[in-house]
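Side project, low priority. Logging it here so it doesn't get lost.
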Amino acid sequence: MRMIDLSLSLEDSVSEPLRVTIEYQTHSSTAAVMASFFSATPDDLPDRLGWANEVITACSHNGTRVDAPYHYFPTSGGERARTIDELPLEWFFADGVVLDFSRKPKGSLIEPHELEHELQRIGYQLKPFDIVLIRTDADRFWGTADYFQAGAGMSAASTRWLIEAGIKVMGIDAWGWDQPFWAMRERFLATQDPAVIWEAHRVGRDLEYCQIEKLANLASLPNPYGFKVSCLPVKLKGGSAGWSRVVAILE
């Protein structure tokens, strides 16, 4: 069995417009706290050393994570939208397929006919509960300010098309599932149509699905299918998302 990491690190990066702060607590700085649990002193610990620890200030949408239906809107299909801790675990371990749109210009939209064409090109037929991964190669810009602007994005129609094909979990290697914000802003200013704002996410108002954002290394997969994806999200009570160490598992 071989595993390929499809995740980005949770870190303080210029690529994150919603910044992360991490306080790294060293073994020496925690000695007193550790000793206090046992009514001891730091002198009672080997070399006066405690444990390593990190204190993180971040939102649930930093790093690679799975978004829950609750993220998109308070309701889905007329019912209360489910949070990340309420979704079936079976959704997050399934056959994966990568659809390559890395040649599309940044900011462009991926439409249903392009999904169909790419599936025909690789010779794959979707089945319910497959995990569909959209490759844009935006992850090449991780660690730079350009990351937030990079990659193509999914349209509302293409998102709906995948859900109607039985897909419950889908993901992308860009900052968001939709077009980058600058591209949505340009469309809105040109059309004055509010429906273009976050259009793919808002499909979740009608149809329940989850999306993975900030994937990485999709170009490292040797084949576009024939592997499992594990993307089990952290069980954040009432959360709109859960961080995930997304991996592809190849026999």
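Brief comment: The domain at 5-9+60-250 is CATH 3.50.30.50 (Glucose Oxidase; domain 1).
Revisit when time allows.
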